[in-house]
Design brief:
- It is a single chain.
- It is built from 15 helices and 20 strands.
- It is of the alpha/beta class.
- It folds into three domains: about 190 residues, Class I glutamine amidotransferase (GATase) domain (Rossmann fold, 3-Layer(aba) Sandwich), CATH 3.40.50; about 190 residues, HUPs (Rossmann fold), CATH 3.40.50; about 100 residues, GMP Synthetase, Chain A, domain 3.
- The chain is about 30% helix and about 25% strand.
- The structure holds xanthosine-5'-monophosphate.
- Xanthosine-5'-monophosphate binds next to loops.
Length: about 525
């Protein structure tokens, strides 16, 4: 745990939107961590020393015996607490109020889902500063149970038609509790409420990327000492930012291993090598294993088999090269915050699925390596910001995601060198078109897939019999769901013409208009 910054603790009771609370606070330059309620003990609180605490919402019912609760010591810390939805109910019950199970209809405190409007009661409340300019404020409710009697010391500061206790507070202790979710988009002024809360708690907004970088460098030096670190580079943003940051901290004690499976895009391997080796002077092993990977993939057309072969070879190759680096004690990984949050899971299963390919999971123990994960506290967009802070070029930081198995999963059916070469050229033309039309940053991911079919065409006076390809472009927030990008017909026509004219081997271009679901972003 770093203690350089003021810290806010979010106790997670299992809400779907707990991560959004962290987002809102990070936007306010406040450092916060989410911890599941089970892990928050009295000793944890002593060690963590939060300057304020937020209780998240959650799906359980506080009236149920054994429902999630925070340790009672949290109320003795003397710091401001904000309870949200379930967090409000648990606070009220812990401090001597009453909560009732949900009624679905009827007045005076019922189950409520969706948009609602809160109006103020007579006295103002510091955390509502800036609210009610138009007399009322839109909020988003999602609760079954409701508070039916306030705990001693609490008063009401806002009501909605179905929530007589929409905003409550004990101003002497700086305990605040709201029935709605200020972190979601549908509570438009929610950020102001968080801002008021953190200012009242004394946060100065010192969580800047510059400060983070300096801290992270100190921490890496402290952890690694004079030992050596190995970092697997994929050419993606996360591992690259991790590598440059670690290099800034420990210089040549870092060696990067770049496993080149021969399934990268046009010029990609050269760009990675020249950026890291030449520009940053980072010791880099370029493991060009194209022959090995393509050899093992020869004749394989089943998508899952392809993935398994690539995943296994990747680990073997990485391990082989890592073993050559004498005396390495640490393995660096670009693990991000969303991968490490132990979300409260009521279904029993883990709520985060980590992508298999680039997660060299299991390797550290097998090789006796300790982990360095300097991005563990960051969200994806914060990693990009850190990359900028470290001087990585914008063209690199803003790049579309690229899957671990690379072009293998954009080449349905058997993979051949010929097809890969055609695919690389077509993809380069397509991306060039997108950049020229200024559309690159509007699109989450765009690529070409080469189809396992030849079709008849006519060019000049001759008949052609060449491959067909599909263009794919989607918008998305997190890759979990996606919409196809609505290009102008003119753009599609121009791009098809360019590909057919410039790329020998393709005589037909189609555009994939499938959303996810039911499709996936990649073709395999
Ligand atoms: P799908 O095709 O499942 O892809 O809709 C969702 C996102 O994940 C990327 N993807 C991968 N990334 N290893 C990765 O690192 C993989 O095996 C992998 N498969 C898919 C895909 O490019 C998209 O951004």
């Amino acid at each position: 745990m770093t203690h350089h910054h003021d810290r806010l603790l979010i106790i997670d009771f299992g809400s779907q939107v707990t991560q959004l609370i962290a987002r809102r606070l990070r936007e306010l330059s406040v450092y916060c961590e989410i911890h599941p309620y089970q892990n928050v003990s009295e000793s944890f609180l002593e060690e963590f020393r939060p300057k304020a605490v937020i209780f998240s919402g959650g799906p359980d019912s506080v009236v149920r015996e054994g429902a999630p609760r925070p340790p009672s010591a949290v109320y003795e810390l003397g710091v401001p607490i904000l309870g949200i939805c379930y967090g409000q109910q648990v606070m009220m019950q812990d401090l001597g109020g009453k909560v009732e199970g949900g009624k679905i209809s009827g007045g005076g405190g019922t189950a409520e889902f969706g948009r609602a409007f809160v109006t103020p009661t007579s006295s103002p409340l510091p955390i509502l500063k800036g609210w009610f300019a138009s007399g009322k404020e839109q909020v988003w409710m999602s609760h079954g149970d409701h508070v039916s009697e306030l705990a001693p010391g609490f008063e009401v500061f806002g009501v909605s038609p179905n929530a007589p206790f929409a905003v409550t507070a004990d101003q002497n202790r700086n305990f605040f509790a709201v029935q709605f979710h200020p972190e979601v988009h549908h509570t438009p002024n929610g950020k102001t409420l968080y801002e008021n809360f953190v200012r009242l708690a004394g946060f100065t907004g010192d969580w800047t990327m510059g400060a983070y970088k300096d801290d992270a460098i100190d921490k890496i030096r402290e952890q690694v000492g004079d030992k050596k670190v190995i970092c697997g580079l994929s050419g993606g943003v996360d591992s690259s930012v991790a590598a440059v940051l670690i290099h800034e901290a420990i210089g040549d004690q870092l060696t990067c291993v770049f496993v080149d499976h021969g399934l990268l895009r046009q010029n990609e391997a050269d760009e990675v090598v020249s950026m890291f080796r030449d520009h940053y002077n980072i010791p880099l092993i370029h493991a060009d294993e194209t022959e090995l990977f393509l050899g093992e993939l020869d004749g394989v057309s089943d998508p899952e088999t392809k993935r398994k072969i690539i995943g296994k070879l990747f680990i073997d190759v990485f391990q082989k090269h890592a073993n050559e680096i004498e005396g390495a004690d640490f393995l660096a990984q670009g693990t991000l915050y969303p991968d490490v949050i132990e979300s409260v899971s009521f279904s029993g299963g883990p709520s985060v699925t980590i992508k298999s390919h680039h997660n060299v999971g299991g390797l550290p123990e097998k090789m006796g390596l300790k982990l360095v994960e300097p991005l563990r506290e960051l969200f994806k967009d914060e990693v990009r910001e850190l990359g900028r802070e470290l001087g990585l070029p914008e063209s690199f930081i803003g790049r579309h995601p690229f899957p671990g198995p690379g072009l293998a999963i954009r080449c349905p059916g058997e993979i051949t060198r010929e097809k890969l070469e055609i695919l690389r050229k077509a993809d380069a033309v397509y991306i060039d078109q997108i950049r020229k039309h200024g559309l690159y940053d509007e699109i989450w991911q765009a690529f070409v897939a080469i189809l396992p079919v030849r079709t008849v065409g006519v060019m000049g006076d001759g008949r052609t019999y060449d491959y067909a390809c599909a263009l794919r472009a989607v918008t998305s927030v997190d890759g979990m769901t996606a919409d196809y990008y609505p290009f102008e017909h003119e753009f599609l026509g121009e791009t098809a013409t360019r590909i057919i004219n410039e790329v020998q081997g393709i005589n037909r271009v189609t555009y994939d208009i499938t959303s996810k679901p039911p499709g996936t972003i990649e073709w395999e």
